[in-house]
Design a protein that fits this description.
Radius of gyration: 14 Å
Number of strands: 4
Largest sheet: 4 strands, mixed
Length: 116
């Protein structure tokens, strides 16, 4: 069983830094390359619940797709979650999950909250 799961984008420096920090802890890590293995709406809802935030708070609002889909004024959680499931580039990264809790590891030091 994995100690932690990371929703990871290997092209992202922040994501690579977070993964390196986890590896240095000697943990059994499940790496989910979420742009390839896209989380479904239910998985996104679970992560939002673990994070304790709304869908818009998990979105990368500077992505072109965010503007193209005109999501700035959308408040409907279901619609925002669907947009993330259909366009995983919208999901903020990296997300680290441990024992039913999660953090957005930006900055990577947020990971420490999972080990307190």
């Amino acid at each position: 069983m994995q100690d932690v799961t990371i929703w990871h984008n290997p092209r992202c420096g922040k994501s690579r830094d977070a993964l390196k920090l986890l590896e240095e802890k000697g943990l059994d890590i499940k790496v989910v390359k979420y742009l390839e293995t896209v989380p479904n709406e239910e998985e996104i809802k679970e992560v939002l619940q673990m994070l304790g935030i709304g869908a818009k708070d998990l979105m990368r609002t500077k992505e072109d797709i965010y503007k193209e889909l005109k999501l700035k004024d959308v408040e409907d959680e279901e619609q925002l979650i669907k947009a993330m499931a259909e366009n995983p580039k919208l999901i903020e990264r990296p997300i680290v999950i441990k024992d039913g809790d999660a953090v957005v590891a930006r900055p990577k030091e947020n990971i420490q909250k999972l080990f307190m």
